[in-house]
Amino acid sequence: MPAEESSAAIVLRTRDYSESDRIVTLLTLNAGKLGGIAKGAKQSRRRFERKLEVFSHVMVYFRRRPHGELVFLTRAEAAGLPPFDLTDDLGKIALGSYMVELADALSREEAESAGAYRILAAALGAVSRHGAGRAIRQAFELNLLRWAGYQLEFRQCQVCGRTPSENATAFVFVPSYGGIVCQRCRGAAPESFIGMTGDSVAALAHLGSIPIAEAAAAPHAAGRDAEAALARFFATVLDRKLRSVEFLQRFV
Length: 252
Ligand SMILES: [Zn+2]
Hints:
Helix content is 30%, strand content 21%.
């Protein structure tokens, strides 16, 4: 029998498999993204001390199966991991659902995901404490994109390298450049671009450079123009449309 392994994990997705079993997708600290089957998850409070539901923060114990895609989950414990408390507010649920769906879409099974786990844990913790806010959402998006290899640049023009000056007001975001282009260079932009105000550019530059836990205290979030720019970028790098976006737009 394969050795038992363990890791801290956040539940991204679940589905019932039978009367008593549950299949879960986990983002783990030590074992990448994992799909697992929890036999008796719905009955056994002894083995599954903390329930396996979306947003659950658990220490999971599991065995790999020689030919199975799913690992066999033997136990899930609280183990001192802070729970994420999102269920008291629809906005928190909407933003949390978007965060787990985005983390799922940007991570791959069998690949290292400790950074994504830490970013998601920090973000869900911030939403639990401070509520659903645009600054937390944007800091999460920029941090997760950087983890996935997409470092978006809002501090300098991607064509001429000039730093936006105080009184500059208009920029464009060019998805294929992964950053902003100043007004003088926008003629060189190769494709459709999204206009952004100087305020939004400055807000994203700030939010992309601070830990997520500090985002709730940021002076301000970027506006709807930034949301459109990031949505366009996600559309170019994700292979699916995120189902949670429409629900989220009603709150954040
Ligand atoms: Zn320029």
